[in-house]
Amino acid sequence: MNDILIRTLQHEDAAPLLQFELENRAWFEQHIAPRAQEFYTPQGVRRHIEQYLDGHAAGIWHPCIILNGQGRIVGRANLKDIDRRAVTAEAGYRIASDQTGKGLATQALRHLIALAEQRWRLRCLLAYVSDDNLASAHVLRKCGFVQGEHQDGMEIIAGAPRGGHRFIRTSP
Fold first, then answer.
1. Which residues are CB-neighbours of 146 under 8 A, at least 6 positions away?
2. Predicted local confidence at residue 158, as pLDDT
């Protein structure tokens, strides 16, 4: 695997993040609910980053980007809805379509697990995966998540409701 850097999102990431999101929009929308149209503008991405960094400062988000050896954004990984009292958060990631099958999702998820345990002192991570996203379900299992209950209509993908599962990982 090529050299990968996973780091916290920064204001300066706006232009390359917009490029990443535009290049992979159709790919992502096959697997997860689409973003609002206004997101896909320089102003929209700057607002998005500002919201995520405000959430990070408030201790409820930890947004990360994944960079390849050439400094290109090839993925994102986030802890969201961090609840320090309940010691839980939701983990999520998205990998560029031309980077799938290279272990990046696993590397990103392991990074989130380490952040959750070491930086945020969390004991439980949740993730949600639609029924047809078998690759993400595999990555979650490989990283110690256990498949939970099925949820009908979990997301709207390509205009149709899709069911999925909640996955849970509890730290020892």
1. 167, 168, 169
2. 67
